[in-house]
Design goal:
The complex is a heterotrimer. Chain B is α/β, with parallel strands linked by helices. Chain B is built from 7 helices and 15 strands. Helices cover 30% and strands 31% of the residues of chain B. Chain C has a 5-stranded parallel sheet with strand order 1-3-2-4-5. Chain C has 4 domains: 213 residues, Fumarate Reductase Cytochrome B subunit, CATH 1.20.950; 126 residues, Orthogonal Bundle (Fumarate Reductase Iron-sulfur Protein, Chain B, domain 2), CATH 1.10.1060; 138 residues, 3-Layer(aba) Sandwich (Rossmann fold), CATH 3.40.50; 126 residues, 3-Layer(aba) Sandwich (Rossmann fold), CATH 3.40.50.10700. In chain C, helix 23 links the parallel strand 6 and strand 7. Chain C is mainly alpha-helical. Classes of the chains: A alpha/beta, B alpha/beta, C mainly alpha. Strand 10 of chain A pairs antiparallel with strand 14 of chain B.
């Protein structure tokens, strides 16, 4: 058995960054439990990834391969995960707070009669009873709560970018095969078609670089686009936003608009460039975790809600910032 | 088209739109205090809207379930004004601060008691604890096909066709009814309920049934609370803007450092 | 031989004429009956109150063409020519019938005057119709449409008039009577015809003319010509019926008789299209099309055969959701010849849409929820409502024992919006300087209900009205000054039992000036222009007070924009538009800011928080920089004190 099991995810043929972070978290928790941590990989073909995972230090990499696991069919993946949990019998199971984690987590918790805490930003083991302490933001991020629940395995989905990714080292673990016991009759929800979309989903962005009237001209957004590209090297989902005035001026299309009449967002970082902060705009972004304001007017509203402010012409700051970001990355 | 019976689960929460300044945390009592009126959780309103549309198309009946220690029927009567046929409050002292699993168990009890249904709809997550679990657990408990994050729902020959959000776009899926679906905001806002309509619904002598844990056949031992061991304000609630000083170059340097720490 | 006219000269089988005349009258009457039946079925109330003023106005407007002349003299003269030409021919023909059947009087001098009069009438009609055609098809006046009906109707009149003259010419060519010269047009034409040919041609042309004229009468109810009856009826009813305060009662969104007659009296002159700021911004709403769509819908619903205007294409009934674009600026009513308040009809349609629920635009849906829960359309909290006054040490009238002569009602937008908060701070300082003992309602200040009323949420409006009245009553408030013309309008006109007097701040400032309490010590050397807010100017006729205040400031040079006073252009923020994400080709506010800029003024002054926000946003969007500024009147006044 493993004390801490991590459900791995694969992205574009290699281990997802979030999984590496989970391995980091798993190692920490295994240490607190005085046990070991392992990784579970599921899919139609995951052998390559299993090898890739070993250097990150798991005691075991469980490999559950089946041709029916091609594509993500929740019913089958859930059955496999349940089966794996019953066979491995971990004390703690961690999943990413991702689409996959949220599809499987609640239903798995029900099947195993345990309790899941979603979107955790911190995890530790209570030394008294060995249960998982799960820290999670609640009330739209206005409060932080720590939960402790009975049941086994102790189950949590973990927010991205809160744990440092595990570091690669010597590969001492072993790869263990689990034979999937699934068949097509288990599919209750039939997939008919997958439609891919290219959309400006501002509400899904991790970082939003937003411009307003203070840019002075349409070309200002070209500079913001350069900043966006520079930030994309360090952050996952960087997008361009704007204020209503910028849309009104025709500088940018309205699907980029943040605020009352645009999209309401709460990204990790919101960079407001040349936006004074009208109430219509503020209500749409004030829940961002960190707000950075760049504006020439020190009295403007944006500075009142910002964490960091730069009172300077954006045309001076941003090119310099892009340079510094390149140096850092 | 045959009529369909839909059960919508709607949760009453403090208005999640309330500004930061109206939210405070009582660490002692481990309570989040929101100085705002009670509303129906927004995603549950989306679920109700889609239910009403399905009913308008095919005919049928909509029952709304709302669970809590004390549920305000003035808030929940909005569902009747919007087109639901029946509102059942699930009220019991033991229903306070339930965890997702116990909430789902109580709801499952109520749904079994209703017995006859084609669809169970819930919001994708509640606007207060943002847990996103109750719907799917409920589906498991009732052994129904579960579809999450629906942005469009239609009915065809006893099957439900759903467009569900996936990271790449959306997936069209099909399941046999009865089924459980969690609804995302893309289905559209709940239609506007005018004050006149609302007042009419308030004045209506109609009594709203209230079922207790006992009525649902749920024993208090089967119900667990959320298990909060600590509650605190998020560290960065107050925004004191740190102005980065210096020449543009120095400012840029400091800003780059900020980005590095946030990475 | 005394001058006289031979009736039915050269015409056999006169009975056929009688049959045709009977038929035409029958068709005409059947049409009129159809209208009345539709009005009866479609209207909530059929009451026709008697009003001497309305009757007087109807007669004067109809016979002098005052409303048609207003704002477009050419159109007015053209209409007068057609109106009086047609009327004199109609009266002439009627007199002739009396002369023929009842008692003979058109002989001798009377006949000569009669003949001369008809010639003049015919010429007027001809001139008017030709002018109309020129305006529509050569000059191509933008507001005029060019549909089939628009060509058929004037051409019909043209042919009727021309054939009448030629007929006369033919007759005179044969008769050559010594008094023929009195029919001078016919006399001139008679020279072109040989008596023999004329005599042969005459009966054919006579029948043709008769058919044209009888047909014209028959077709009146089935074309836009119905305005001959509908317009006077509409003018009377708009004047006679009391302004309705839409209440929460059942059927508030339904039409009354005045509306139905207004729809049918509309002859699509397009003045409203020209005046409508929504049309000007390239938005898909136009009052005329809206009214016509409603007219068609009414007929579809209440008449078995549907719309009887056979030349009206059916494409218009798709205006359904576009009424959310209307800013209720009242510009359409200002120029409508039949005093049709399209914007009030818009509100009625909105009442129905709000009641139905699914057609309420998303943002408006959210705004209404917010209005209900927090009594303001901006923030999901009541807490910060009085925050703008921090540090000003104002009296809070809701505090125990607080009293003041004047209650300053700040309003939602002025309380919450950063740009607009300046109005409140400036006005407070101006009042303090003038030594006025005033207070505010602080956190407890409610929403006056303007937005709810304008977007058709009457239930919410009623609740807000009652709440406000109770609050004013509780704190013994009798004098109210508002920042917003919208609050002012709502209090003044839509609180029928208001226990207080509401004034807009411009009125208060003007009074303080007259009392000598407001003295401008400092000059402001600037050229300024003034934007009339719709709800201050057009809706409540306050045009002079703000201008008098501006002019009283030493050094100020006030110049006017192309559109000012009753003709002013809307900023685009009224009627609930501030809280809707609708878009046209351009913004109304941008059209306005360009007009302000074109005057060469450095400062655009306005007196409404919505106008201030919209115009300030437009100024930024248009990239207009210093020294050009948008300013509230209070700010300017404060600078000059």
């Amino acid at each position: 058995m493993s004390d801490v099991l991590i459900l791995g995810e694969v992205k574009e043929g290699s281990l997802d960054l979030k999984t590496l972070e989970l391995l980091g978290a798993g190692k920490k928790l295994a240490g607190e439990l005085g046990g070991e941590f392992s990784l579970l990989l599921m899919g139609d073909s995951v052998s390559g990834m299993a090898d890739e995972a070993l250097p990150y230090g798991p005691a075991k990499v469980y490999k559950l391969e089946h041709h029916l696991l091609q594509g993500f069919k929740t019913d089958l993946w859930l059955a496999c995960l349940e089966q794996a949990c019953r066979e491995i019998n971990p004390k703690v199971l961690l999943m990413s707070h991702s689409f996959l984690g949220m599809e499987l987590g609640p239903r798995l918790a029900c099947r195993l009669n345990t309790r899941l805490t979603t979107d955790c930003i911190d995890l530790s083991i209570d030394p008294e009873d060995g249960l998982l302490l799960r820290t999670k933001p609640v009330s739209g991020g206005n409060a932080i709560s720590v939960f402790k629940c009975p049941g086994e395995p102790q189950l949590a989905t973990v927010r991205g970018k809160v744990f440092a990714a595990a570091e690669s080292g010597d590969a001492n673990g072993e790869i263990v095969d689990i034979k999937a016991k699934i068949d097509e009759s288990m599919i209750k929800v039939e997939s008919l078609e997958i439609v891919r979309e290219e959309i400006v989903a501002l509400d899904k962005a991790d970082v939003v670089v937003s411009g307003g009237a203070g840019l002075g001209e349409e070309d200002g957004f070209e500079l913001l686009e350069e900043l966006r590209e520079a930030l994309s090297k360090s952050f996952a989902n960087v997008m361009i936003g704007c204020s209503r005035v910028a849309v009104d001026k025709g500088w940018i299309s309205s699907d980029h608009q943040v605020g009352l009449t645009g999209t309401m967002i709460s990204p990790d970082i919101y960079v407001a460039v040349g936006i004074s902060g009208a109430i219509q705009h503020l209500v749409g972004m004030v829940h961002a975790k960190k707000i950075i304001a760049i504006n020439t007017d020190p009295g403007c509203n944006m500075f009142k809600v910002a964490d960091y402010g730069v009172v300077e012409d954006y045309e001076e700051i941003i090119p310099a910032l892009i340079e510094k970001l390149e140096e850092l990355s | 088209m045959t009529e369909i019976r839909i059960i919508v689960c709607a949760k009453q929460i403090p208005d999640p739109e309330a500004p930061l300044s109206d939210v405070s945390v009582d660490a002692e009592k481990m309570e989040v205090i929101v100085d705002a009126p009670q509303v129906i959780s927004p995603f549950d309103e989306n679920a109700l809207e889609v239910a009403v549309r399905l009913k308008e198309e095919a005919g049928g009946k909509i029952s709304v379930l709302s669970l809590g220690k004390k549920v305000s029927d003035t808030v929940l009567r909005k569902t009747l004004a919007a087109g639901a046929d029946e509102l059942i409050l699930l009220e019991d002292d033991n229903f306070e601060n339930l965890d997702s699993h116990s909430t789902a168990a109580a709801l499952a009890g109520a749904i079994r008691k209703i017995g006859d249904y084609d669809l169970v709809l819930t919001g994708r997550q509640a606007g207060d604890w943002d847990s996103g679990q109750v719907g799917l657990i409920l589906g498991e408990m009732l052994a129904l096909p579960c579809i999450s994050l629906a942005r469009d729902i239609s009915i065809e020959d006893g099957n439900v066709l759903v467009k569900k959000n996936i990271p790449e776009g959306y997936e069209r899926v099909k399941a046999q009814m009865p089924a459980l679906i969690t609804v995302s905001n893309e289905v559209g806002e709940l239609r506007y309920i005018s004050r006149t309509k609302m007042l009419k619904m308030m004045r209506g002598a109609r009594s709203i049934p209230s079922w207790s844990a006992e009525d649902l056949g749920v024993t208090p031992e089967a119900l667990q609370q959320m298990g909060i061991t600590a509650l605190s304000s998020p560290p960065d609630m107050g925004r004191d803007c740190e102005l980065l000083e210096g020449s543009p170059d120095e400012q840029a340097e400091k800003l780059a450092e900020v980005f590095k720490t946030l990475r | 031989m005394t001058p006289h006219r031979v009736m039915f000269w050269q015409i056999g089988n006169v009975w056929i004429f009688y049959v045709l005349a009977g038929l035409a009258t029958g068709l005409f009457l059947a049409g009129v009956v159809a209208y009345v039946s539709v009005w009866k079925k479609s209207s909530r109330s059929l009451e026709i109150p008697f009003s001497k003023e309305a009757l007087k106005r109807m007669i004067l407007d109809t016979f002098l063409g005052r409303r048609v002349l207003q704002g477009d003299v050419a159109a007015g003269l053209m209409h007068l020519l057609i109106f009086w030409g047609f009327l004199s021919l109609f009266i002439g023909t009627s007199l002739l019938a009396i002369h023929h059947y009842i008692f003979t009087f058109l002989e001798g001098t009377a006949h000569l005057i009669f003949s001369f009069g008809l010639e003049v009438g015919g010429l007027m009609l001809l001139a008017g119709v030709i002018w109309a055609l020129i305006r529509r098809y050569l000059q191509r006046v933008p507001r005029l449409e060019r549909r089939l009906e628009d060509a058929v109707v004037p051409l019909w009149l043209l042919l009727a008039a021309l054939s009448g003259f030629i007929l006369e010419g033919l007759r005179l060519a044969v008769e050559r009577s010594p008094w023929g010269g009195w029919s001078f047009v016919g006399w001139c034409l008679s020279g072109f015809f040989s008596p023999a040919g004329a005599e042969g041609l005459y009966p054919y042309l006579w029948w043709g003319h008769a058919l044209l004229c009888l047909g014209f009468i028959a077709v009146i109810p089935y074309t836009k010509l119905f305005h001959i009856l509908g317009a006077p009826a509409g003018i009377y009813l708009q004047g006679a019926s009391k302004p309705i305060v839409l209440g929460m009662e059942e059927g508030a969104g339904e039409f009354d008789l005045g509306d139905a007659i207004f729809f049918d009296g509309c002859m699509r002159c397009g003045r409203c299209v020209e005046a409508c700021p929504s049309v000007g911004a390239g938005e898909p709403f136009a009052p005329r099309d809206f009214v016509q769509a409603l007219r068609q819908a009414l007929w579809q619903e209440h008449f078995p055969l549907g719309d009887i205007r056979f030349m009206s294409p059916k494409e218009e009934s798709k205006v359904d959701e576009n009424f959310w674009y209307c800013t209720t600026c009242r510009a359409c009513l200002e120029i409508c010849p039949v005093y049709g308040a399209a914007f009030e009809v818009v509100t009625k349609k909105r009442v129905l849409a709000v009641e139905e629920g699914t057609m309420v635009p998303k943002l408006l849906n959210q705004t209404l929820e917010k209005l209900f829960k927090y009594n303001n359309p901006w923030e999901s909290s009541k807490r910060k409502r009085g925050a703008w006054a921090d540090g000003l040490e104002l009296i809070d009238l809701t505090k125990r024992g607080a009293e003041a002569d004047l209650c300053y009602f700040v309003g939602c937008t002025t309380s919450f919006d950063d740009t607009a908060q300046m109005i409140a701070r400036s006005f407070s300082k101006v009042l303090q300087t003038a030594g006025v003992n005033f207070g505010i309602l602080g956190k407890k200040e409610p929403c006056c209900g303007d937005i709810a009323r304008r977007v058709g949420e009457l239930g919410l409006f009623e609740e807000q009205r009652k709440g406000s009245e109770e609050l004013f009553d509780k704190y013994g408030i009798t004098e109210v000054a508002t920042s917003s013309p919208h609050c002012f309008h709502t209090f003044k006109n839509e609180y029928p039992e208001a226990p207080f007097r509401a004034r807009h701040y411009t009125q208060v400032l003007r009074e303080l000036m007259a009392e000598g309490k407001l003295r401008f010590k400092k000059g402001v050397e600037a050229t300024v222009t003034y934007h009339d807010p719709c709800y201050l100017g057009r809706h409540n006729r306050i045009f002079d007070e703000p201008r008098e205040i501006i002019r009283a400031i030493p050094g100020i040079n006030l110049i006017e924009m192309t559109h000012y006073q009753a003709d002013s252009l809307c900023c685009g923020g009224g009627g609930g538009r501030m809280w809707q994400d609708l878009q046209g080709e351009v913004k109304m506010s941008e059209v306005r800011i360009r007009e302000a800029e074109a005057t060469g003024a450095e400062i655009l002054i306005t007196a409404c928080p919505l106008c201030l926000i919209m115009l300030e946003d437009a100024r930024k969007a248009a990239g207009l920089k210093e020294p050009f500024r948008v300013m509230d009147l209070n700010e300017l006044v404060l600078q000059a004190l």
